[in-house]
Predict the 3D structure of the following.
Amino acid sequence: MALEDAKTQVDTAFTRTDRRGLSFENAFGGATSFLRRTYTKDLTGVDLAITGVPFDQAVTHRAGARFGPRAIREASTLQPYDPPYGWPTNPLEEMSIIDYGDLAFDYAKVSDFPETLTAHIRTILKAGAGTVTLGGDHYITFPILKAYAETSGPLGVIHFDAHSDLWPDDDLSRIDHGTMLYKAVKTGLVDPKRSVQIGIRTTTEDYLGVHVIDAREVHEKGVAAAVAKAKDIVGDGATYVTFDIDCLDPSAAPGTGTPVWGGLHSWQAAACLRDLAGINMVGGDIVEVSPPYDSTGATAIAGAHVAYELICLYHWARTQR
């Protein structure tokens, strides 16, 4: 949307009729839709839906990620004025992207949450759109993967995290952010041979065949080596990218429930995401942003940048198909 057009509009998150284009509204005012995209439940012609899942009842320690989607959206209003840096294309101009709003669920019926989320994502996928989800704690990835596997079969996963989330847990009724990938592998949603974790720096006894590029390897061997290894692992098959913000070092992202020192620097994460261009990314999420533990807003800003890079990866995958 041109600047002169924006001057005649009132809060284009609601009033714009063309879902493509940059946005030039004031960052400090208006609705905080992600990247100033249109708020709508109409999936007609939509390529990608951004949706929030304000759920944090699966955390092992500090709650607060339920406020993540709102904070990430607010931080994203700093970004929609320019094409994404380092990319040869501009998804905001070339794709129909909407903000689908947050998942509605009964916080007091936690046992109903997984299927509610799976149905939410299933609705979007059946309309022909992909998703980038704003969490929420990392448990949310498990129900999301279930919806994706229904259409794509077992997925390859690129998992940025300090933790493997592979701790043993064979009780599917348990809702735990530390076991989401264990459940996804054990139930056949994820192909471990085509999955890789980047940034790990906590101990896990059994990785169930999932490949690991720990934080030290990224630091010592470099981003290029890590990305080349990850691309080789996932190959050309359908791949889901999940980014736990605690993959970043606490100095860059203190606002998270389980921070661990020695993590990736923000420039390393940015370079990894951009250099992953070419993978067959079908969807992704950014999770564990917990605003109460970061009064500066830096963690939410990092989360918004991650989400934008996921959009770019999704768009690039579409252009290569």
The domain at 3-320 is CATH 3.40.800.10 (Arginase; Chain A).
